[in-house]
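Give me the fold.
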Amino acid sequence: MLLNRAVRSVLSKCVVCLRHAKRNMTTPSASLPENIIKDFAVFEIIGLDLAGPLYLKRGSKAWICIYTCAAFRAVHFEFLSSLTTEAFLQSFRRFIARRERPSIIYCDNESNFIGASNYSKAVNWAEMAQFSSIQKIQWLFLLLPPGGVVSGKD
């Protein structure tokens, strides 16, 4: 009995033994959205955000439009000379010309994105789909506070 107590007391104070005896914590994994789990083409479902302003040498501002694939996390960057809906639509057309037309777009509530969404609703996509295999684009706006997630505003 004394030997067992002595062994237990030595093992309970041994730092190396305590380190190896600990179990790793496991955290429950969150349920993933269906558009990340399913198999999609690259850039079929995208996230859209703006970075900037960037200050150019000539004194003007520029922004970078970031297109992120939701399934593969591939990234595509486009240059914006202004924050107008027309400039964004030009960037979006360049994106579609280089990549494929996305079916779902996730973005925040910036005014130029909302204007582009309203413009895309005005286009007759059913008529365009008759002549080609282009799918209708679905815009999903994330409900973020003004200034974004990290702005510190409530």
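The CA atoms of residues 54 and 62 lie 5 Å apart.
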